Amino acid sequence: MRKPRAGTSGTGTDRAEGLLARGAGVAALVGAAALLATAVPAAQAAPPERTPAADVVPGTGTRTPALVGGLHESADAEAAPADAARGHLAAQQGRYGIADPRRDLTPVQTLKQGADETVRLQQKHHGVEVLGGQYLVRMEHKDGKRVVTGTSGKYFTGLTTSTTATVAEDTAVRRAVSSVAARLGGATLGRKDIRRAEGAKSAASAALTGTSGGLVVIPRGAGVLTYRVTVRGTEANTGRPVLQDVYVDAHAGFPVLQYSRIKTLTAPKPATGTQRPAAARAAAGSDTPATPAHPGTSGTGVKYSGEKVPLNIYFDGAAKQYSLVDHARMAATSKNTLHTWDARAVDVGDASGRWPGGLKEFTNPGPDYSGDATAAGAVDAHWAAGQVYDYYKNVHGRDSLDGRGMGIDSLVGVTLFGGPFVNAFWDGQKMVYGGGDDQYKTLSADLDVVGHEMTHGVVENTANLVYAGQSGALDEALADYFGNAIDVTVSGTKMDDPDSGLIGEDLCRTAKPRDCALRDLNDGRTTAKDYLGVSFATDNGGVHLNSTIFSGALWDIRQDLDPKDPFLADELVYKALTTYMTPLDGYTEARNAILAAAEDLGLSVRQQNIVKRSFNAHGIVPGWENAIGVDSDQLFGKIDTTGTGTAAGGGWWATSKSNDDGTEPYSIWAGKADGTGSPKLISPNDGRFHVYPATDGKSVVWAAFGTSSLDILSRPIAGGPIKKLYTSTTIVQNLRVENGTVVFESYDSFGGRHVGFLKPGDREPTWVDGGTYALGTALPSLHHGKAAYAKLYPVGDDYKIGVETYDIATGATRLAQQLGEPQAIGQTGITGKNVFWLADENPSDQGQMAVRRATLAGTGTTDISAEAGPGALIPFDLTASDDAVTVNTLLPDTRYRNETLPKLWQLSADGTRKERVSCNRGEQLYPSSAGGRKVVWLDGTTGFTDLVTRDRPAGTC
User: Fold this and answer.
1) How confident is the model over 718-730, as pLDDT tens digits?
2) Same domain, 316 and 241
3) Which pTM does this prediction carry?
4) How far apart are CA 685 and CA 678, in angstroms?
């Protein structure tokens, strides 16, 4: 093993449905979730009370600077650090624009490194937490004096929203759970939706529960008051764990932001007195266990690779057995332990965000572990956790993941429904490692994986980056960087080795390291070329897809900054993480943080230029998002909405839109599909969220979320009064309209799904399935007075799934012939000649579904795209015209990349032609046929949510 070099070089101590994430800092959440505060014109800002010693980086949409450096201003030397920090901000109110720091900023933590103190403060608005609103004050305290050296972060000065909720908390919880259930299972109707009278609950509802975390202000414009609801459970159709934060507008009841909290491996200074002693530096990554203290002892273990390593373990004298519990490493501080648990009898759904039952210790009659403990991955996990702990303690002076000696728990061998689980994650409490399968070893068998997951815990206890969009990609980038830094140090891999940047390269049983690796930090990706704009429902907004953009720049810095001392780069990145970064930072803010930290650490001009060149080479420069091109025509830009869909018909389109900076609830707009003329505002701007539009070119219908109910509203495109067609107490979506008749889907109070319709003049809907729990209908389409939909219905003691057409004028129904026994039906589409749908007969495959066609009489059923074989698609949405069928689809692959993002493919009605609609790099969602081969959709390529169109497919791309 290569030990760190002693000495220094001027050194010191991150159905695809949801938001389309925009790109930069606050804008990572901000574009789609619109978390951007109203900008204050420079002319309104009060002049600073004194000129700072260094340039001030202004904040975005706030009077408070994003960064102030080069200060040397006196602060209260006798006060607690947090009080001294807030006193400084109060004394410089003209510079910072914070009216009352003692009232509006509460201490989160104080990081002390020698004479340096970094105070992290959380913004409150009238006592309510502001999401991502954190401000940092850096100080130096020595010789009885304290001075402020710099500040940075995000404090939103434009917040004026009321903090009195008008939506009941239990209503917010129900809507959050329904929103997660719809996102996870709404793309199909299948056997997972079967409900029995005695239970009267859907699988999705039974598997999910919600808990309110109270009120939170999202810093969008004047502020959006929300309930933060944590939804836990298991995804009904896959068994994957669910741990989602859903932010429900507390004044209108609409879920405005939603993302997963499970952080998976993959889609997964001398100047400031912080220099470490040479002896501590030489100990970083050492294989030598810490000196055991009672009741701990020493042992050994055989890793997956066959290498024998020392372990800190525990001996139970009464039971006369050893267990994988390390008491030694934190014996002198918190006395907590590093504990490795046997979770081979635990399902992953029971291990995420909760402490599962059935855990056992890995016991052994002697101190030398091998055999079962090796095969389970326990030896690797226990040894690696110690290596990661030692790295953070010896290199950065950090005692465990929280810096205060928290216990470290590793669960190894979890399964998925008793079968293989090939992933690993940090859930805010512990590391969880899957047991692997016939291709992959246990996920703890590579040190960089363990370092990655444990670094998520470090990030969570420092900058606490929001795990979505760019801030989430930074979280992943930092986890990859530090995990790999630990791995190459312990393994002795040189930084100029072309394989030094591989993540997870040792996990495969047979594949070579480069073929096995999950990511490569040396892959040379740049933002302008490779950034992928995706929804928060896909990879949490691209947290893995886009992470190597930033981690690649960090790895270049580690390779080039000081080849003789790679720890210099580690210190730089760690300082930026702990003393500069805040929860909503994006690539540009993180670049600024690292450059500021480089100056703090006393790096030379040459070294600072190396850092700048590394970021420039990866395209991380101000305004990088503007370099992304598209091949589609924009109809409506920067929509700033989440999960609201789009529609086309009769030569018109309709969509939901907030205003450009997201300061308003969503309104419905309509425009001509050929792009001529100006878009028209259809709905009122009344504080409700107006969503799920449909149009036939004559009128627009939509759903309006209110405090306790949802209204279906309608308005002629030519103008006129808005009509309330129906009021529902449950979620309604998938609206369709034709000549005044409206078809929609409703979720009942138990999670059941029913298709209903309203003819002109109807006050109550007619339910095509009678609204009974014993039947389920969903995913409707409408054309020429006929509705088509998926249907779940009993046959004897069993259930069948099919597609039914309903003649609205006569009530006559026809079930289409099937080509086997489908287990799930996806979106339907009906035209003047045929009915189309998605059919899944093999749920154990990778998600492939057939694109199926029948006549309106239900006969002549055939597949225009087969579920199996070459070219099989993984579709989750469908729209049809007489000339073409367009599907939203994925392609099977082993990793996330552009080619496997949701894309639009168009087939001729007879299946003889199949082409890509667009070659855009980003995610493509919510297609709607505008007649012929023309399609409109929501596109995320630019990092914003844009409504775009093409008149014909783009070919094969």
Assistant:
1) 999 999 999 998 8
2) no
3) 0.77
4) 18
